[in-house]
Amino acid sequence: MKIPRVLPLGAVAMLFAAGACGNPRAEANVAQALNDAANEIGGLKNDMAQLQVQIDSLHTAVARQDSLITRIMAVNNIPR
Question: Which alpha helices (DSSP H) does the chain contain, by range?
């Protein structure tokens, strides 16, 4: 006769309970690391926004210079 290899329900419940208990210090470290990562991501978003403003400003300056050069060329009859 074959003996089934099934754990009793109480043993299974104890294994799940033991697995569910975590180290509070490890959980705190993970929470701190996630908080630090979120802060760094926020900083990167701010940096990206600042860079976008600077790029937009440079586009405006280049467009203004391009218009000025075009007008100077037109006034002096310089072909493009």
Answer: 9-20, 24-75
